[in-house]
Amino acid sequence: MTPLAKHLIRRIAATGPITIAEYMQECLLHPEHGYYTTRDPLGTAGDFTTAPEISQMFGELLGLALAQAWLDQGAPKKCTLAELGPGRGPLMADALRATRGVPGFHDAAEIWLVEASPVLRRVQQETLGGNATWIDSTAELPDLPLFLVANEFFDALPVRQFTRADNGWREHVVGLQDGAPRKGLAASLPIAALDHRLGDTTPGDVVETCAPAKPVMAEIALRIRARGGAAIIIDYGDWRSQGDTLQAVSAHEFTDPLAAPGQTDLTAHVDFEALAQAAGGLSHSRMTPQGVFLERLGITQRAETLGKNLSGAPLDAHIAAHRRLTHPEEMGTIFKVLGLTQDDAPPLAGFDT
Ligand SMILES: C[S@@+](CC[C@H](N)C(=O)[O-])C[C@H]1O[C@@H](n2cnc3c(N)ncnc32)[C@H](O)[C@@H]1O
Q: For residue range 247-281, what is the model confidence (pLDDT) as tens digits?
């Protein structure tokens, strides 16, 4: 039994069942035993591999898309270049390398990183050097034009889950059975915040909500609306969540989310409609599949250029990485990209105009 499982069992025994969001929060960010608090889980030797870990092309293209937005918006003399949940920092490192040749961009951009994990902050410092400011929340971002990227950040935020009943919704909870954590359903209650889901669900359907995503999106939108800038958000999910999407991953395999609290990654699919709504009417570029987005940004041309210097196994790995990022049966379709800019800003690169 993991140390966090013992803590959760004591907590549930003392105060009763906890919501899935409370369970995720404890598992991911418990100050002593949380998954992100205690480890660097990324990469082939870890539990999961993200797009910027697969290929440098991902961060390069996103960096160039943000630099293009900065140029299109008049190259403001000072701006924030921010990333949410940078992991080991490869996306920002590749973005900075790719944009070195954009005149004035690096002089204008202050780098701000929102990161909850002390372990990953240390890795990011090694990857990026000291030339960045680390913060806990988007509320601390400066009052400047904001150029922001977030890859697989929102899927790590805790979700609540509800099953539709005949006269309301039953929240999914984690309680105890024979002294071990077990999933259960709370009593049915009417929930006004889910009224908009009455039209597209029937009894028995499961929906998820992600309360912590709302203030994050509101803070981003506040700055872009007031000062300009752009946000590009990439994650797995869809326009509107439906179904139980909570998943646990360990050593690149799916596992039971209750089996080893604090020692497996827990995520849920992202509801992009909810993110766009939390941005409060800020114009958003249409949600686009990752594969289409990267092709529009020129990933195939970049892959061909990089491939010219490769042969044998490194070339095979490079071709596989391009396929993994873009192919509909790999990350190309399940991952989506949402862009935010001011209403009258020039369109963001990679999105349909
Ligand atoms: C799945 S990893 C993605 C890492 C990176 N973006 C990448 O693509 O390689 C999630 C990242 O978000 C961070 N994170 C998770 N929850 C967070 C929170 N509530 N506040 C700030 N950072 C958080 C994690 O520590 C980690 O850096």
A: 999 999 999 999 999 999 999 999 999 999 999 87
- CB neighbourhood size of 209 (10 A): 18
Under 8 Å between Cβ of 64 and 57: no
CA distance linking residue 120 with residue 55, whole number of Å: 19
Do residues 26 and 4 lie in contact, with contact meaning Cβ atoms separated by under 8 Å? yes
Distance 75 CA to ligand 1 centre (A): 29
Contacts of 329 (CB under 8 A, 6+ apart): none
Query: Does the predicted TM-score (pTM) go above 0.70?
Result: yes
Q: Ligand 1 in contact with 151 (CB < 6 A)?
A: yes
Domains and CATH numbers, the chain: 35-158+209-341 (3.40.50.12710)
CA 145 to chain centre: 21
* Residues 61 and 299: beta-carbon distance below 8 Å: yes
If residue 45 lies in a helix (H) or strand (E), which one and from where to where? none
Strand residue runs (E) in 215-334: 229-238, 247-250, 253-255, 265-267, 270-271, 284-289
Q: Is 119 in the pocket of ligand 1 (CB under 6 A)?
A: no
* Ligand 1 pocket: which of 26, 113, 153 to mutate (most atoms within 8 A of CB): 153
Q: Is the minimum distance from the CB of 86 to ligand 1 under 6 angstroms? A: yes
Task: Tell me the per-residue pLDDT of 274-311, one tens digit each, with 9 for 90 and over.
Answer: 999 999 877 767 899 999 999 999 999 999 999 999 99
Q: For residue 131, how far is its CA from the centre of ligand 1 (angstroms)?
A: 19
